[in-house]
Amino acid sequence: MGEEQIKNLEAQFEARIARDEKIEPKDWMPEKYRQTHIRQISQHAHSEVVGMLPEGNWITRAPSLRRKVALLAKIQDEAGHGLYLYSACETLGVSRDELYEQLHSGKAKYSSIFNYPTITWADMGAIGWLVDGAAIINQVPLCNTSYGPYARAMVRVCKEESFHQRQGYEIMLKLANGTPEQKAMAQDALNRWWWPSLMMLGPTDAESVHTEQSMKWKLKRKSNDELRQQFIDQTVPQADILGLTIPDPDLKWNEEKGSYDFGEIDWDEFWQVVKGHGPCNKERMKARVGAWERGEWVRDAAMAYAEKQQKRKEKQVV
Amino acid sequence: MSTTKNWPLWEVFVRSKNGLEHRHFGSLHAADAEMALENARDVYTRRNEGVSIWVVESKHITASNPEHNGEMFEPAQDKVYRHPTFYELPDEVKYM
Questions:
Q1: B1 in a domain, yes or no?
Q2: Could you report the per-residue pLDDT of A140-180, keeping only the tens digit for each?
Q3: Interstrand relation of B52-57 and A259-261 (parallel, antiparallel or unpaired)
Q4: Separation of alpha carbons A73 and A54, rounded Å
Q5: What is the pLDDT of residues A63-96, one digit of tens each?
Q6: What is the pTM of this model?
Q7: Where residue B20 sits, what CATH number does that domain have?
Q8: pLDDT tens digits for A23-55?
Q9: Could you say which residues form the signal peptide (chain A) (predicted)?
Q10: CA-nearest residue of chain A to B2?
Q11: Which residues on A lie below 8 Å from B2 (Cβ)?
């Protein structure tokens, strides 16, 4: 294809997106669109998969059967979300194996929040309430993104995510209204998860390198700072209902703006964790890679069995 | 890395209730058809989304090429006479 022709195709492509048309896997697309989508969708899938690890820690320690079945169901959903997203990503011409390889080698990123430890049961509450809450704010606009398979996966994910947040908030509610020790445990979890949850919505607009292009492709509909403000404004009243204090002395309602002012985010911490120096980066990858490697003989055995059955069937036909 | 082959890709179709058609829900990897069905149940019908599942290995699907959409689909565009509104009838004619 000549340069002129590609430019022409690109212009047509951008116009289709501007008209709110969806792009489907076999449609022509600029290479940069394909690469950006592979990067974002796979990061999203990896986050779902790694996101199971901090919660897996508490399945055997859940305080009641009710909490245990809910946590198990939530973690199973996250595996499901990872699978929807990997499938969507594979439609762009990358294989599942390549995607896993990128995750396991550290080449691909996943959401930094999962590199924090889950040290008490209240962390299950705070994760559901805050981490899933921030994820919902990030994900809802993606239900209308331009790439069809991604948008369809996100519709399913968002439908299921609301249960995650409610089960988390219910855990917090129970603890906050429990004994003084339980309330203190809930407060401690809020203290530790609040700032990382704000960071989850991404670097400030001034620092965000992908925003402009992503807006054009509807991979993003609101900027990181707008999403963060929305998250804070809707979460503060929820903390009030719990009777817990958000660990930010600068947090104050701004009547003029009609939203909350908030304190400085420690972006050094954010970048440290992104670069692999968070409290649990190594542990998470070790658990993930270990599970993958220990499962290899099972995957191989299943394939060998399938091939044997297939051959037997072919023989019977002859 | 594994020396054996990777699990192939399967497309999953789910009938959400009797009376409706099976609809494409997504895809997954599985070693064989039986495992594809079991995985499809866990991945796509955790909340009563279906009463019947079809799985087909993706390589068996033949798809039209969007680059040929012109010759494939445009001929239908100028055949307005295939639609009832093409025919002009007096208003007095009822039940038609």
A1: no
A2: 999 999 999 999 999 999 999 989 999 999 999 999 999 99
A3: unpaired
A4: 15
A5: 999 999 999 999 999 999 999 999 999 999 999 9
A6: 0.93
A7: 3.10.20.520
A8: 999 999 999 999 999 999 999 999 999 999 999
A9: none
A10: A296
A11: 296, 299-300
Q: Nearest Cβ partner of A26 from B4, B9, B65?
A: B65
Query: Which domain range does residue B27 map to?
Result: 9-93
- The architecture that CATH gives domain A3-278 is Up-down Bundle (1.20)
Mutation for B interface: A75, A83, A105, A311, most B CBs within 10 A: A83
The nearest CA of chain B is from the CA of A45 a distance in Å of 14
Q: Which residues contact A283 (CB under 8 A, 6 or more apart)?
A: none
8 Å CB contact between A117 and A280: yes
- Cβ separation A76–B46 shorter than 8 A: yes
The pLDDT tens digits of the residues spanning A178-221 come to 999 999 999 999 999 999 999 999 999 888 877 778 888 988 88
| Cα A200 from Cα A81, distance rounded (Å) | 18
User: How far B18 CA lies from chain A's nearest CA (Å)?
Assistant: 21
pLDDT for B4: 59
Q: Is the residue at B3 inside a domain?
A: no
Which residue of chain B has the CA closest to A300? B4
Using a CB–CB cutoff of 8 Å, tell me whether B35 touches chain A: yes
Q: What long-range pairs does A177-181 form, CB within 8 A, spacing at least 24?
A: A177/A243
Counting the structural domains of chain B, the total is 1
The nearest CA of chain A is from the CA of B4 a distance in Å of: 6
- Kindly state whether residue B74 falls inside one of the protein's structural domains: yes
